[in-house]
Amino acid sequence: MAQLFATAVVALCGLFFLLTTWSSAAAPAEFADKLGLAIASPGGVNEIRAQYAGFFAAAALLCAAALAGWVSRSTALAVAAVIFGGLIGGRLVSLALDGGMAGYGPTIRALYAIDALGFALATAALLVRPSG
Q: Is 1 helix (H, G, I), strand (E, B) or coil?
């Protein structure tokens, strides 16, 4: 059962990473706008594609490699836990510094739940998975 849970979490994380890759690469200006960011020059488009599409493509490929058996699922889960943990950690610090969510758009608000869930699932899958 733990193995099936780990596989499902790796697949779910991989799909989220792939969706982020696709949406940021295909329409960087729209992606940035949903995050409350403005692109001021072609360099901004480059950064959206590098920081979001490139980074999340690498994470999606790692999840695919884990599902194919080329790397361990534990490796993919640890990377997912680090990614989502870093994101939710940064969001919580920002929430404290900003004194709440006033001014946060719907995408940012949704990302609090997505990042917390991703971190919780990846961590839980790591903890219940047999080592090795």
A: coil
**CA nearest to 106, candidates 35, 46, 38:** 35
Backbone angles phi and psi of 131, in degrees to 5: -70, 155
Long-range pairs, 26-32, Cβ under 8 A, ≥24: 28/52, 28/53
DSSP, res 16: H
d(CA 23, CA 122): 23
DSSP character for 27? -
Per-residue buried b or exposed e for 84-99, using 16+ beta carbons within 10 Å of the residue's own CB = bbebbeebeeeeeeee
> How much is the pTM?
0.92
pLDDT at 129 over 80: no
